[in-house]
Each structure stands twice: as C-alpha cells, then as structure tokens.
Design brief:
about 575 residues; alpha+beta; 6-stranded antiparallel β-sheet; 6-stranded mixed β-sheet; 14 helices
C-alpha cells in the first residue's frame, strides 16, 4: 500500500501514460490485495480494469452461503449489487477529465445471471471492477488517485465484501430466493409442465425501459385459474401454489390490453432467475424456452425450411434455403428450425409479431388459392407434429385466429390480467362452428439438418485488430460487420451480448469452429467449458480477466452466429 502511494505521488503531474507502470502489478493492503489488470491509455478511453481479492478467512462468508453452485451465482450477484450500491456511498465520483476518478462495476438488472464481476470460493472473494484513473487534461492527478485508491477503496471493500458488514437476513434471502427458483424449475419436467406462475406474482413492468415491477396497487397479482392449479416445492420458502402450463400446445387468448403479451413476456424472461422483490420470483420456465418471431430482412444461410415452405417459384431450394433479405414468413420458418437445431424445447410466439401467412390459411383463402399454388405450410398444421415427433411444446398468444382452437391442448383466457381456463369452451366452439379449413400436411415434420459453420466465414478483425464490441443488447460489432440482435429478445443484458462476442472469438481461436463440428456441437462444447472453468475462461487475455461478462444461453450464441452476414455453412449429410 505504501509502495502504491509512492508511485502515485511520484507520477503526479506527469503524462497520463505514467499510470501504465501499474499494469500487471498487485499491491497488498491490510485486508485485501489490489490488482491492476489493465490501465487505460487516455482519460477519455474505456476505464482501467482492477480487482480486489479478500481472503475468505477475512471475508468470513459461511460455506452455506456459496455452496452448491447455484448459491455461488446468487451470492456473487448479491455482492456485485452491494459493491455497486456502495460506490455512491463511499467514493466521491468523477474528479478531473473524462471518466476520471470514478469506480464502476457491472450492474445487474432484475435477473440473476452468472457473471465475471464477482467470484466467491473456498479461498477468497474477488470483485472485478473499473476505475477511471484521475487526470487534469492528460496529466496524472496522482494525489487524487491516492485518495481514490488508498482511502476510499478500502471503505468500499470493507462495506461490500465482508460478511460482517452486510445484512445477514437480506443476503440469505437473496441466495435462498434464487435457489428456490432453480428448484422449482427442476420440477417442471417431472410434473409434465413447461412453465409455472405462482399466485401473487406481479407480471407487469413499469415500462419497456424500466423492468422493475409496477408499484403495489397498480398491478393485479396473478392468481392460478381453476383447472391448472399446481403446487411446487421450495426448499426454503415452502410449498407455493400457482398455475402450471402443461407440455403440448397452449394458447393464451383474450382482449387487447388484458395481459396476454405480459404473461408471455414474463415466461420468456423466466428462463432466468429473478431478485427478491421483482414480482416474478415465483415464475419459472423451461430453460430451453425460446421466443420466435418474424424477422423481415434477416440473412438466412442454408436452413432446411421445407417443413414450412417448399415448391418456391423458379426452383428456389428450401432444403438449403439462403437469403440475404428473408421475408417475414421465411425468416420465421428459419428462426424455428435454427432454434430446434440449437436445442429449444419450448417455442414462445405472439400473433402480433408473427407473419400472418406463416401462422394460418383459413378456409376462404384455401378455396381461393389452391394448395399447389401456395408454398407455405402454415404453423397451425405443424405445431402438434412438433410436440408429437420432437417433444417441443408451444405457447402461443392468439388474439384473432380462432382456428388454433382445433390444435390446442390448453386454452388460457386473460381478462384484466387474470387468467381463466377456457379449453372446454374453445373445443365446444370448434365443434359448433367448424373452421372448414383443411390440414395442409399429412407427412412427418422431418429431420433437423446438421449445419457446419465454415471457419473462413468468420473475421473478427477490423484492420489489424480484433474488433468485437457489444452495443447494448441489440447489436454486436464483429470485425467489419454488425450482427443485428434487436429481435433476439432473450438477450436481456449488455454483458450477455459482450460474452456472446467473446465466445465466438474463443470458438474460432481454439478451433472449435473447425469446419467439422456442427453449430450445436460448438455451443455444447462452450457450455461444457464454462460449466467446468467458469465464464472467465472465454477471456482473450487470461492475465487480464474481464469483469463485464454475463452468461448467455447456447440458444442466443447460436442466434448470433446465424445472423452473421458473412456466415457460410456446409450441410453434414
């Protein structure tokens, strides 16, 4: 600590690159070690990457707070939030030019994700964070840096990374709430369910840009409808009653603005766990649930969309369909096939964001346009096959296409954000008022082809440097190309997007993308690696571990690769 003070005092007033002598060094404080993994070259550049490591013998977190692994993820999330909260309490914030003088740490939202910002194990607690090294113009403010690192940082660490400084009840509530969600999710398959929504859950959010729950009194608490009540076991909070959505084909119907899409959105986000107080702590979905939508203009590369689209004019191949600007129907067909290839077990779809001609052809249209003139086999004629042959369930929000009553196993009606089971009524309507439409397929769904990415179609370089950068959750710069992810709706955190980019680079550098492995095999290998070694294993510089990755699913990694406009695919026969 004294040596650090001498260095900072010695470079006071010198050029900003004087800070570079700290890079790669570590300094021992009374209760922790401080690591300088990377030092920015300019006060206006991305901030420096630092870490503090507290021996567990001093931090004194009991083993039951971070074992088994689900508790480790939960405790790391809790400590990241505590560190972020305490930055404003124990540090001054900006001082000097650019981003000088401020601490930052990867800030979680409502979801609890595996992150690299915090590590807790049997040896130590380590926080990885960012710091803008103080400057006046491009001159070092060494004394300000000393104040920041030697006086303020120890207070921040002491109040964020020591068990004795944190409210024990709140900490364990956070850990146990996450573990309860994981335990409920593990019960879905054995109960024949794909999702569960607990009574009293609060599903509506404050806005599209504020994912906190609506305040008390402005939201209708969820209540399980008669006919779908299920009890779930929770190891800490005890049994909970709620609505179980069964495997198969489920429709969510109801009037506009009555909560159909709100329920679907809660399900798609509940492939992840949520923090206490979010309102969705009792909502869990199958981890293989994936949101499907039409995506006009996306590139598609050699996807077998023939279960849905065939016999295109001019002999266009749909067994290995490619397009630089896919239509709504072809993009939605490709999205489904790619999701199945990547391991999706539940498809989540909203009529509002689907291509109408992909979803259904009613009787009148069938009479006007004969089947031999229509290349599209609508989803309504494949949805039950998907379940029977592939074991893939579907949850559909339907507001106008009542023909779907004929294929639904369960129908849930939302009215003023309250659900009711109307399966019987829907079947009676189908009986009394037959749609008259003819099923447009009698064959099987078919096999999902093995698609093998060609390594030469990936280029993360822009000039001589690797340039892979997440821009929020909607875009990923990959070399000279941009991967458009704004309609991949289950990337919820910029740090997930950042990790997707690094995972693709890792797969290239380690030759997982080798022209032999399928896309599914590549994502499986990456997942196994992260399970064994943690998310930091994907870092391009092991000696400079990053603190701003959050774990994505294989489904989102595959989705990003499939949207790379330079992607070239071989089909494994």
């Amino acid at each position: 600590m004294k040596q650090l003070q001498q260095i900072l005092t010695g470079i006071d007033g010198k050029g900003y690159k004087g800070y570079k002598q700290l890079q790669g060094k570590r300094f021992k404080f009374a209760d922790f070690e401080l690591f300088f993994h990377y030092i920015q070259g300019d006060p206006f550049a991305a901030p420096s990457q630092l870490a503090v490591r507290v021996p567990l013998g001093k931090a004194v977190f009991p083993q039951e707070s971070f074992q088994p692994p689900v508790r480790q993820v939960a405790l790391s999330d809790y400590l990241t939030r505590a560190f972020h909260r305490n930055i404003s309490r124990f540090t001054r914030g900006n001082r000097g030019s650019g981003k000088s003088g401020s601490f930052q740490i990867d800030h979680p939202g409502q979801e609890v994700l595996e992150r690299t910002s915090m590590t807790v194990n049997e040896d130590y607690v380590e926080a990885r964070f960012f710091a803008g090294m103080p400057a006046a113009g491009r001159r070092v403010l060494g004394r300000e840096a000393a104040e920041m690192l030697i006086n303020e940082l120890p207070k921040l660490v002491k109040n964020s990374l020591f068990f004795s400084a944190l409210p024990e009840d709140e900490l364990f509530n956070h850990v146990y709430t996450v573990e309860d969600q994981e335990h409920m999710r593990s019960q879905l398959a054995e109960k024949g369910l794909v999702a569960f929504v607990a009574d009293e859950a609060i599903l509506p959010r404050r806005s599209g840009v504020d994912q906190r729950p609506l305040p008390s009194g402005k939201a209708v608490p969820f209540q399980a409808p008669l006919g779908l009540e299920v009890e779930m076991e929770r190891p800490h909070a005890g049994k909970v009653r709620g609505m179980g959505i069964p495997e198969g084909v489920t429709l969510i119907v109801g009037g506009g603005y009555h909560g159909k899409s709100t329920l679907l959105r809660a399900l798609e986000q509940s492939v992840y766990n949520h923090i206490p107080g979010d309102g969705r702590e009792g909502v869990v979905a199958d981890p293989g649930a994936y949101k499907i939508r039409a995506e006009d203009g996306r590139r598609v590369e050699k996807v077998n969309i023939s279960p849905f689209i065939s016999n295109l004019p001019f002999g266009h191949d749909t067994d290995r369909f490619s397009s630089d600007e896919a239509s709504g129907s072809t993009s939605q067909a490709a999205n489904i096939i790619e999701a199945l290839e990547a391991g999706a077990k539940v498809l989540l779809m909203d009529e509002d964001t689907s291509a109408t001609n992909f979803m259904i052809r009613d009787m009148r249209m069938q009479l006007l346009v004969a089947k031999d003139r229509e290349p599209i086999t609508p989803f309504i004629d494949r949805v039950k096959q998907l379940y029977r042959e592939k074991g893939v369930s579907t949850i559909l929000v339907i507001g106008g296409a009542g023909d779907y009553f004929d294929v639904a196993g369960t129908v849930i009606m939302m009215h003023v954000y309250s659900p009711a089971v109307v399966t019987g009524e829907a079947r009676e309507i189908s009986r009394q008022y037959p749609s008259g439409r003819k099923m447009e397929t009698e064959d099987t769904f078919g096999e999902i082809r093995d698609r093998v990415p060609r390594p030469g179609s990936f280029n993360p370089y822009k000039g001589r440097k690797v340039k892979v950068k997440a821009q929020g959750v909607d875009n990923l710069q990959f070399g000279r190309d941009d991967i458009d992810l704004h309609q991949v709706e289950q990337i919820l955190d910029p740090s997930q997007n950042r990790a997707v980019g690094e995972i693709i680079c890792y797969a290239l550098s380690k030759k997982l993308i080798d022209g032999k492995k399928t896309l599914a095999e590549i994502t499986e290998e990456v997942n196994n690696l992260v399970d064994e070694r943690g998310l930091e294993a994907i870092s391009p510089k092991p000696n400079q571990p990053r603190g701003d990755y959050a774990r994505p699913r294989a489904l989102e990694i595959a989705a990003a690769i499939n949207r790379l406009r330079t992607l070239s695919i071989d089909i494994r026969d």
